[in-house]
Amino acid sequence: MSTGKKVDPKDPIWRAASVNDIDAVTRLAEIIHPTLPERPDVFAEKLALFASGCYVLVRHEEVIGYGLSHPWNLNSIPPLDSFLKGIPGDADCLYVHDVAVLPEVRGYGSAERYVDLMVECACKIDVDFLGLVSVYSTQRLWARYGFEVANGSELDMKLRSYGPTAKYMIRNLKSP
């Protein structure tokens, strides 16, 4: 789904996250998601459980965004600000927990590049779906990358802690 846009060396780049990035991720989360607070230990656990899905967006050596993903079960939404305590043995999707980029550096194709990384990651762990919770009315953004809204009363109840516009969305990697 890449646009073929050339990446300028001054554009932000995704790199693997490390424990040293947790403070920056926490700071960005507090700025970008003030109504969806999560503890630094929750971010650290995701990194410890599945480092291959955790990235930070960097420009001029400054962390300006992050993306956290982990294997999970399709149509299941981990509660916000809670510990996973492990990856399910029967995981059938890669759950994109959060992708956050500072507003002033949006528009460089960073979300698309992160989704591309997660598609590669899902293929490596042999799952056919990506799942995420869209917040702040971002469904149109995610739809551009092949995600579709999944409905169901059980999902709706779980989405309440994510805010009034939250929607669970799925991308089937086997669909054309």
Structure notes:
The longest helix has 15 residues, at 110-124. The chain has helices spanning 22-32, 40-49, 110-124, 139-143, 153-159, and strands at residues 13-16, 54-59, 62-72, 93-101, 129-134, 148-150, 167-172. The relative contact order is 0.17. It is α+β, with helices and mostly antiparallel strands.
Walk me through the topology:
Elements: E1 13-16, H1 22-32, H2 40-49, E2 54-59, E3 62-72, E4 93-101, H3 110-124, E5 129-134, H4 139-143, E6 148-150, H5 153-159, E7 167-172
Parallel strand pairs: 4-5
Antiparallel strand pairs: 1-2, 2-3, 3-4, 5-7, 6-7
Query: What is the CATH H-level superfamily?
Result: Gcn5-related N-acetyltransferase (GNAT)
CATH architecture group name: 3-Layer(aba) Sandwich
Mean pLDDT: 91
Shape: globular
**Which structural class should the secondary elements be placed in?**
alpha+beta
Percent of residues in β-strands: 25-35%
Low-confidence stretches: 1-7
Distance between the termini: 11 Å
- The oligomeric state of the chains shown is single chain
Q: Radius of gyration in whole Å, from Cα? A: 15 Å
Helix-strand string? EHHEEEHEHEHE
Strands of the largest sheet, in order across it?
Answer: 1-2-3-4-5-7-6
Largest sheet: 7 strands, mixed
What is the number of helices?
5
CATH class descriptor name = Alpha Beta
Number of domains: 1
CATH topology: Aminopeptidase
Helix content: 25-40%
The count of DSSP E runs of length 2 or more, i.e. the number of strands, is 7
